Amino acid sequence: MVQRPSRPDRNIALEMVRVTEAAAIAAARWAGRGNKNAADGAAVDAMRFVLEGVSMDGLVVIGEGEKDDAPMLYNGERIGNQQPPEVDIAVDPVDGTTLTAAGRNGALSVIALAERGSMFNPGPCFYMNKIAVGPRGRGVIDIRASATENLKALAQRLGKPVQELGVVVLDRPRHDQLVAEVREAGARVLSITDGDVAGAVATAWPNSGADILLGIGGTPEGVIAAAALKGLGGEIQGMLHTTDDAIRAQALALGYSFDRVLTADDLVASENCFFSATAITDGDFLRGVRFHDFGATTQSMVVRSRSGTVRTIETFHRHDKLQEFNTVI
């Protein structure tokens, strides 16, 4: 009798919040100090340290890079105590390293988990053209349509004029034409310098001011955002993108398609996925790490798609306990 892989029946996201909290606190100590590599390195060390104690057989599908370039949390690394459940893991210890280094708003520490074999592996395809909306916008967006067409359809669904739509776009030269079209359509551009995951999640968060995300961002961040939006009830679509002929040829040889529309179910096939995010700096839906006499305070979001539960958690970390892990966080 063949034994079936165990499913993650417990809400692992409630355990993952400890992981993102540790990473956020570690990175926050470097916030505003102008060293994004130090912030990212501290977050990676802290995240890896806490992950080692989680009861699971985790496989890093999206990590900090290949093994030779990332000694910890690399793609293909096994995480946890190798006990069931078997899960895929996608991590971004600092979503917004530049934001953290500059002390700007919008940086998060994030992690997503899903059943083994269910997460899309970006391979060599680092970039993706994306569109994301919250629950009320489900079913009306189409990444193959123009920005203007999508904005008109979304405005009609939301029952408000295009002029009131908030459109999240990464501030990059490649988006100059997109920004011009959005403004010509009458919508408001919410420009972000970094924080691809946070921008997508914001579209599904009440009162964030963000209604839709448009433009080219990271494929790994798209997978993580898909795990979050599946739990939040939003929608994301993507199409792989590159301007590098060598990468295109490599991707095509591996079976990737640049014409295929990737849905949330393509990016994370499991209906039982988990997402945890802890704010490093203040953002649209979470407050950043606060250091004080007691120790530190964090705010986190925990999402599970199967149950549809979304929790916000505020945690007080005692100073003396933080000192026990001072070499890590």
Your description of this structure?
The chain has ten helices and 14 strands. The relative contact order is 0.17. Helix 1 packs antiparallel against helix 2, helix 4 packs across helix 5 and helix 6 packs parallel to helix 7. The protein has 329 residues and is an alpha+beta fold. Strands 1, 2, 3, 4, 11, 12, 13 and 14 form an eight-stranded mixed beta sheet that branches. A six-stranded mixed beta sheet has the order 7-6-8-5-9-10, with helices on both faces. It is globular, with a radius of gyration of 19 Å.
Outline type: globular
N- to C-terminal distance: 46 Å
Number of helices: 10
Give the biggest beta sheet: 8 strands, mixed
Compact summary:
The protein is α+β, with helices and mostly antiparallel strands and 329 residues long. The protein contains ten helices and 14 strands.
Write the layout of secondary structure elements.
Layout: H1 13-28, H2 36-51, E1 57-62, E2 78-79, E3 86-95, H3 97-102, E4 108-115, E5 127-133, H4 147-158, E6 166-170, H5 176-185, E7 188-192, H6 196-202, E8 212-218, H7 219-232, E9 235-241, H8 245-253, E10 262-263, H9 264-267, E11 274-279, E12 290-291, E13 295-304, E14 309-318, H10 319-324
Parallel strand pairs: 1-3, 6-7, 6-8
Antiparallel strand pairs: 1-2, 3-4, 4-11, 5-8, 5-9, 9-10, 11-13, 12-13, 13-14
